[in-house]
Write a structure and sequence with these properties.
The structure is a single chain. This protein has 171 residues and is of the alpha/beta class. The protein contains six helices and six strands, in the order βαβαβαβααβαβ. Strands 1, 2, 3, 4, 5 and 6 form a six-stranded mixed sheet that branches. Strand 3, helix 3 and strand 4 form a beta-alpha-beta unit. The chain is globular. It starts with a strand and ends in a 9-residue tail after the last strand. 32% of the residues are buried. The model has no long low-confidence stretch (mean pLDDT 93).
Length: 171
């Protein structure tokens, strides 16, 4: 039986690794034989996004990710799916990592800039391994906030199937 888990809002705020882990455990306890992760997120914290992505990647049952709104670090979570689908009207947004700079001297700020470069490289590597985009292409795409619609995403290898329409009635 397939169970659906929604990943929405801010990663690390509205959706956390521990929250997703609890939902996965509950779904498995209730007999889940596959999990569908529906992503409707503005992004959030890089480390938290990678933790959730590793959880999805390491699933011992099929893990399907479904794109609705996949912004920022939510891309990494989406690309973790064993199978990736796009909802009608799905949209992705990619950009370079950023942060609110803390107070500090020039050396401190250079250190933060180097850390951001490492995070960008980590994100680009993760996405390039799962799409038809090279590191160089991703660097260019991420240099500005780049929005990708469903047709563009299909041609870039972001997903392989459209999400199934699920109808239900409640009396």
């Amino acid at each position: 039986m397939e169970h659906t888990i929604h990943i929405k809002g801010e990663i690390g705020g509205d959706t956390t690794y521990m929250g997703v882990l609890a939902k996965v455990a509950e779904a498995k306890a209730n007999g889940a034989t596959s999990l569908r992760f529906v992503i409707d997120s503005i992004g959030g914290y890089v480390d938290e996004g990678f933790r959730i992505a590793r959880l999805i990647e390491d699933m011992d049952i099929p893990a399907i990710t479904v794109a609705k709104r996949v912004y920022s670090i939510a891309n990494v979570i989406f690309f973790a799916g064993h199978t990736r689908e796009a909802d009608k009207g799905a949209e992705w947004m990619l950009h370079m990592a950023w942060f609110q700079p803390p107070a500090g001297n020039a050396d401190d700020l250079r250190s933060w800039a180097q850390q951001l470069d490492l995070e960008d490289a980590k994100i680009r590597n993760y996405i390039s391994e799962r799409t038809s985009l090279t590191d160089s292409q991703l660097k260019q795409v991420m240099a500005v906030d780049t929005f990708v619609n469903t047709e563009q995403a299909k041609s870039l290898g972001f997903f392989t199937a459209r999400a199934r329409l699920r109808m239900c009635a409640k009396f």
